[in-house]
Each structure stands twice: as structure tokens, then as C-alpha cells.
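1st attempt posting a full record on here, be nice pls
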Amino acid sequence: MQCTFCPGCSATCHLTKLIDGKVIEVHVCEKCIPQVNEPNLIDFDIWDEISKLAKAKGMKDPMATLDSIVNVEISAKSLMLSPQSTTGAHCHSCGFTSEDLRKTGRLGCPDCYTVFSSMLDEVISDCQKGVQHLGKIPQSQVGSRRKQLEIMLDEAVGSERFEEAASLRDQLRSLGTV
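the predicted structure (as C-alpha cells):
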């Protein structure tokens, strides 16, 4: 593939953006890659840098083809910028505010997770399958996890906590038992 900015040069970096069914493809060669950089990676937008590179090379901005489309960036950070997010909240431990979270995309301390939980739940649920990690268990730990679940299941049945017991039964089934 040929570089978008240096005709005749072979591109090594290929970027594709899809917005409302319209595709923008940009191909960048080894010479142009150093010009697409940003020391502050918190607010780094590769497409903004591509636009700057096109302007510096006297070429048409590849993003100009999307002028008719409302340019909505979909990312965890942009979701935190949404107006329905918690406003005016602040952490009593570190003084971090919801505005600080919106600006930096980071939290100030462990207590911030509780204070800004409604904002974070909204962002996390939009970015991934769920808000609780249900990852795989290493094969070496399956036996001990199975025994632990069986003990918890016996206790739950004995205490007549049947909903909890059903959940534990399902977890055991996912491990390949019951």
C-alpha cells in the first residue's frame, strides 16, 4: 500500500475510521510516522495528528470527507463528557472533582471509585460486556476452586439460601461439574 502523504513510498502504518457507514483510510510511511506524535497521551487523537500532517504536506485533510456528518468520538473518555453524567460531585479524600475526571480521564485516589461510581458504571458498561469481571480460572486452580464452590454450595443449601445456591451450582457447571 502506498503512503497517503508521500506518493511512491510504501506505507507501514494503516489507519481506518468508520463513521455512519463512511470509511476513511490513511496509510503512513516510515518517514511520516515521526510527524504523527503527541507527548501528552491523555488527550492524544491520532486523527487530529493526521489532519495536521496533511496540512503540513499541503494536502487535503482526509477527515474533510466527513464534514456533513456530526463527528462524534466514541470512547470511554467522551462518554464521561456526556451531560447526563454526575455533575458537581467531588471526592472528600483527595478533593478530585467530576470535572477533573472529565478533563483527565483518571481518578485521584481509591475513594474516587465510590464517589464517581455512577459515571464509571455508565462508561464501563458501554465499553465492555459487563461491569463485573468473570474471567477464566487458570487450569491449575480449577480443582481448588471447585472444592471451594462445593463447600459454599453445601452451606447455602443448609442455610436455605437457594438463590445463592443456584448461582453457585451454575458456577460449578461452568467448571464442568454437577
